[in-house]
Design goal:
Largest sheet: none
Number of domains: 1
Radius of gyration: 19 Å
Structural class: mainly alpha
Number of strands: 0
Shape: globular
Oligomer: single chain
Strand content: under 5%
Distance between the termini: 21 Å
Helix content: over 70%
């Protein structure tokens, strides 16, 4: 990668790392589904403006509508909702650590769905290390005594699994659609699904919110969702999907530091050990380290 790609990737990691803190701040006043509704809704507005300004063609087929609905559910409603609820009961940094397991579950989902994504030996080893890292981060105590904290951790992991399935859905249904248009359609569908859900379960969404809540929502929707999607696809084009895995590793430390500084969060030792094992699994999964050893 060139220097510009590195800078953009680091900026993306900082943006996504900050999204966990922003979500937690918003949750001090509003519910998880309402938080996610704001995140998806305002981001959809921004991307609609972008798509219309750039005059990108928007498909008007039933397949595109179905594709957006599936992506909205799998890539936004379920994971955003589960992770936001999970953050009510576990630390932001720990949520980010579990979020890093998305790549691990993504490899498994792809191997099940596509013949050209079969597990090689390094991928299988990376997946095993990733699972072990997640289990370590959860801790044996959580398995022994199941409580709301344990349920919150499982909810966040459920969100990462939903992300993984969304990757399969996107490959099957979103082929040939511009990334910006796909993101716009996905977030629009998410908003339409979230509005009745949030209203029914958490009451009528209100715009009469505290200033710090609005700042958090503005960050998580405009910066960490709309702008981050545009930056993500830019980095993807310049650095490739393999290098984007490094973003996953960088997001968690950013979220941990911000949670410690802003919320006085303290993670148990097994969380750091689990993240180290998970990071090793992602490195093994990537495979480039082994290729360098072979060349040497």
């Amino acid at each position: 990668m060139d220097g510009r790609a590195w800078v953009e990737m680091l900026v993306l990691a900082l943006i996504w790392g900050g999204s966990f803190l922003a979500t937690r701040v918003a949750l001090d006043e509003i519910g998880p589904l309402t938080t996610v509704l704001h995140r998806a809704g305002w981001a959809a507005v921004i991307l609609w403006i972008w798509v219309l300004m750039r005059r990108y063609p928007v498909p008007r087929t039933a397949r595109f509508v179905l594709a957006c609905a599936g992506m909205g559910l799998l890539n936004n409603v379920i994971p955003f909702g589960l992770m936001a609820w999970g953050q009510l009961h576990i630390e932001s940094g720990l949520t980010a650590i579990f979020n890093a397991a998305t790549a691990i579950f993504g490899v498994v989902a792809a191997a099940i769905a596509f013949q050209d994504e079969r597990l090689t030996w390094n991928r299988a080893l990376g997946v095993l290390l990733g699972f072990f890292g997640v289990a370590t981060a959860i801790g044996l105590a959580s398995f022994a005594s199941f409580d709301v904290r344990s349920l919150a951790q499982l909810a966040v992991i459920g969100g990462t699994i939903s992300y993984a399935i969304a990757g399969v859905w996107a490959r099957k249904m979103m082929t040939g659609v511009r990334p910006e248009v796909a993101a716009m359609g996905m977030l629009t569908a998410s908003t339409l699904m979230l509005l009745p859900m949030a209203w029914a379960l958490e009451g009528q969404p209100s715009l009469n919110l505290q200033n710090n809540t609005w700042v958090a929502l503005a960050y998580v929707s405009i910066v960490a969702t709309a702008l981050a999607y545009l930056l993500y696809y830019r980095v993807l084009a310049s650095a490739g999907s393999g290098n984007l895995m490094l973003v996953t590793l960088l997001v968690a430390p950013v979220a941990i530091v911000l949670g410690t500084l802003a919320r006085d969060e303290t993670l148990p030792p097994q969380a750091y050990a689990g993240f180290a094992i998970l990071a090793l699994g992602l490195v093994v999964l990537d495979g480039r380290v082994f290729k360098r050893f072979k060349k040497a």
